[in-house]
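Write out the bound-state structure for shikimate-3-phosphate.
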Amino acid sequence: MTLSLQHSSKNLIADLQITGSKSESNRLLILQALYPNIQIENLSNSDDTVVLKKALDQSSGVIDIHHAGTAMRFLTAYFASKEGCEVEITGSKRMKERPIRLLVDALQRMGADIQYKNEIGYPPLLIKGKKLHVDSVKLQANVSSQYVSALMLIGASLPKGLEIILEGQITSTPYILMTLEILQHAGIKGDFKDDRIFIHPVKNIAASTIAVESDWSSASYFYSIAAISETAEIKLSNYRKSSRQGDSCLAKIYKHFGVQTEFQGNSIILKKQKATTSIRVCEDLRDAPDIAQTIAVTCLARRLECKLEGLHTLKIKETDRLQALKNEMEKFGAEVKTTKDSLHLLPCKNLKANVQIETYNDHRMAMAFAPLAQKVPVTIIDAEVVSKSYPDFWEDLKKLQFLVQ
Ligand SMILES: O=C(O)C1=C[C@@H](OP(=O)(O)O)[C@@H](O)[C@H](O)C1
Ligand SMILES: C=C(OP(=O)(O)O)C(=O)O
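---
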């Protein structure tokens, strides 16, 4: 599906419901499979959550998790520790290029029976579930925090719990903290200090209902829309001031672009006020990699110079996001330099109109470039990719007077 986007209204007002965070939802679904008396509210309607939920109904055969990184990593640990199951976990062409060796090595050292169907280090995986008895494992933590979260999620179900000793510079730390907080909320004890995580064993937990906060990464596109607009008042629900999601740092980052965040009840209201006269945006996004594309495109639209660092994980996400950003921003006439972990955008004087954006099977490429339609008409190729995290995205854009056709 190809969509053309235009926008001419200067005054943006809308009241939108964003569904639950896919990161929180996918953690809670794994926990619920281990401890069935957990109830979940405001579950994400994203494809990544739908595929994970469906996979948990299976204990044999082939499971296809498409593009969902968290589903791939969390289910690998879950099925490896589930006695009696025998599954093949596979995914999209890109998923077969996303590394998983560090997690598989750690699980194998814990006694798991996991084999690679094709290439060593990459899905598909053939898993025979077994009781895992080893209670301490080392894990390199500088490639993806999802490997760490995957082990944490099964830790309490192991007979002696699990100690995870993290090696290397820890990346995407807020996602590890999110896992810990969700475990604690469910009644599982865990500690994370320096390079050590310990998850205490527990057989049964008390019944509880846990509400998922809405997705802050999805909110990022409305921060960008507000930042590019002249005036805006966009209300989004359900959000909390003390969020578990690292991407809630958006509220602070977008102040530089003149966007204020007001918490009102369980909603946030994004208000565009006069931007500060910052001429260069510098951010280290080691803790919030998923908002890199959003911020880069906001800067492109605002003709600002932008230096983003801490982007070493972007090359192994849904696509090589550094290369994809460079390719697509250059189509507008921008000058973009990238290294293996940074992106430098120079101020773009004149934005070319009617650019066709390739999305590389990456939902965030489609959503990050959409706000640019406030400046010039743009076309998004394969626009349906948004369903990986935000199936209602295009409908919600229409509510903000975007012409989407
Ligand atoms: O644990 C999670 O829910 C996630 C962790 C991050 O991945 P990395 O730890 O691989 O950076 C993030 O990019 C991804 O969208 C979701
Ligand atoms: C990187 C992402 O997801 P995952 O790694 O779970 O596929 C994302 O949603 O931006």
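---
The chain has a mean pLDDT of 96.
The CA atoms of residues 305 and 394 lie 28 Å apart.
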